[in-house]
């Protein structure tokens, strides 16, 4: 359509409708620019959605003589992008909630384990999962959910600490009496040195 208008431009020179023609021509050119800008990016993430909003805002700021039709079209594009942004945000929040629920369920299962070593391993796996995936979800959790996540982390660390102590105690009991006595004396000396070092 724009090319057809350009081809016919000579017909409108020095005519009564030349000004109207030029106005339509300019408006159509700007509309094409805008549509090309809108279609240049695939919107499938929050980041790409925000980047598109920024691009269109910049285009609007540097573009003069926007007609009411173009301003209406811009407004409708903004509203569509904001709606997409909201949907993407809700998807992220839902995914974060599901992730937190999975962690909570896995932590609850620790109490069903009878073996201390299994409890230690289960707590370790949860902490590893949190460390690996936390950055993907944490910004989409509300304050209450963040507190729940911190509680799971803290309880897993405490569970590990308890089971470490149990494991050490079990290994200690398995040693022959002489070795137990030697290790006990070495540990006593270690604690004494640590205490003196801390006081000094």
Short description:
This protein is mostly helical.
Number of H- or I-type helical stretches: 8
Mean pLDDT across every amino acid position: 84
Return Rg in Å.
Answer: 34 Å
* Portion in beta strands: under 5%
Please outline the major beta sheet: none
In one word, what is the shape?
Answer: rod-shaped
Alpha carbon gap, first and last residue: 87 Å
How would you classify the helix and strand content by structural class?
mainly alpha
Overall number of strands: 0
N-to-C series of helices and strands = HHHHHHHH
What are the low-pLDDT stretches, counting only 5+ consecutive residues below 50?
Answer: none
Could you characterize the architecture of this molecule?
The chain contains eight helices and no strands. With 200 residues, the chain is an all-alpha fold. The chain is 84% helix and 0% strand. The model has no long low-confidence stretch (mean pLDDT 84). The longest helix is centred in the middle third of the chain and has 43 residues, at 68-110. It starts with a helix and ends with a helix. It is rod-shaped and about 115 Å long.
How is the topology of this model organized?
Layout: H1 2-7, H2 9-12, H3 18-39, H4 46-62, H5 68-110, H6 116-137, H7 143-174, H8 177-199
Helix pairs in contact: 4-5, 5-6, 5-7, 6-7
Keywords:
about 0% strand, single chain
């Amino acid at each position: 359509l724009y090319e057809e208008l350009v081809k016919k431009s000579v017909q409108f020179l020095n005519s009564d409708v030349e000004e109207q023609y030029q106005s339509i021509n300019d408006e159509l050119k700007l509309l094409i620019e805008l549509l090309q800008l809108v279609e240049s990016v695939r919107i499938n993430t929050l980041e790409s959605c925000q980047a598109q909003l920024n691009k269109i805002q910049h285009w609007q700021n540097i573009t003069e003589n926007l007609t009411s039709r173009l301003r209406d079209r811009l407004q409708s594009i903004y509203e569509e992008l904001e709606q997409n942004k909201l949907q993407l945000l809700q998807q992220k929040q839902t995914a974060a909630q599901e992730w937190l629920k999975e962690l909570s369920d896995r932590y609850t299962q620790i109490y069903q384990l009878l073996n201390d070593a299994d409890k230690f391993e289960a707590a370790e796996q949860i902490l590893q999962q949190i460390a690996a995936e936390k950055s993907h979800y944490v910004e989409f959790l509300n304050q209450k959910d963040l507190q729940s996540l911190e509680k799971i982390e803290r309880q897993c660390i405490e569970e590990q600490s308890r089971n470490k102590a149990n494991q050490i105690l079990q290994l200690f009991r398995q040693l022959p009496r002489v070795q137990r006595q030697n290790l006990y004396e070495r540990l006593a000396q270690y604690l004494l040195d640590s205490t003196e070092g801390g006081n000094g």
